[in-house]
Amino acid sequence: MGTSKDKSQGGKKMITRENITNDLKKVCKKLNRVPKKREYDETGTYCSRTVKRVYGSWNEALKEIFNYQHRRSSEDVQEAECKNCKKTTKNPKFCSRSCSTSYNSRSENGRKIGRAIVITFCKICTLELPPNSGSKTKCKDCSNKIKTNTGEYIDRDDATKGMILTDDTQKYRRIRDWARKIAKKSGKLKKCSICEYSNHVECAHIKPIKSFNDNEKVVNINRKENLIGLCPNHHWEFDHELLDLKEK
Fold first, then answer.
1. Cα distances (angstroms) measured from residue 42 to each of 23, 38, 49, 170
2. Which residues fall within 8 angstroms of residue 39, CB to CB, at 6 or more apart?
């Protein structure tokens, strides 16, 4: 077991208040301020436990030697008037958090009413969108337009399969996203058409997308009659030609 700091520097020597006072003043002069417990343990000759044993507490030692108080006593706190309810309080401005909220929420006290209006523009025609449009990025006239692979915006009904294919591994992603919106709107994704499972229903094309020509319009590929809602298991079976929808 290790010995304490005081014992290592002479356990038989009598430690007096004068010794501790001189040592604390020495550390204070070195730090140019009243030391904290940790700082005195690292810099002083003795340790904070010895100071506590001789003076009764660390704060009592600082008060007697440096006339320093770590915290304000209740006698030193001046009373003030609450800005909201006019009650007497020991806090600087308000007697409670609710009074602070009530006071600061009033417009005459500097609060700005409502949110700042954010001006947004249509990403196609660059016209200003109506206030509070939310996450909309297109105006009403451009809402039915879609971006092609060449960067051109055309009417959604005129877009062909080859125009909106992507270069990633899921090249039919945009067509499937569009189909999922149509199927959900028509109520085909409420339950599986085979087993009536309803927790998770996926949109499937009865006639596969790959079987259509690149010049075929997407509206024909995603017509409601070509869409069906299937659970993940039946969707996998259908994609791998293990499920015949005509028999079901």
1. 13, 6, 13, 64
2. 27, 31
Q: For 170-215, write each residue's pLDDT tens digit.
A: 899 999 999 999 999 999 999 999 999 999 999 999 999 999 999 9
Q: Letter for the amino acid at 42? A: E
Could you tell me the residue ranges of all domains in the chain? 13-66, 80-109, 115-144, 148-239
Q: φ, ψ for residue 112 (rounded to 5)? A: -90, 125
pTM of the model: 0.51
Q: What is the dihedral of CA 32, 37, 42, 46, to 10 degrees?
A: 100
Residue 233 structure tokens: 């298991």
Q: Letter for the amino acid at 110?
A: G
Helix (H, G, I), strand (E, B) or coil at 127: coil
Question: Which residues is 121 bridged to in the sheet?
Answer: 128
Distance from C-alpha of 57 to C-alpha of 9, rounded to nearest angstrom: 22
Torsion on CA atoms 23, 24, 29, 34, rounded to nearest 10? 170
Q: Which of 159, 224, 218 is nearest to 185 (CA)?
A: 224
Compute the distance between CA of residue 46 and CA of residue 5 in angstroms, rounded to an integer. Answer: 6
β-partners of residue 205 are 227
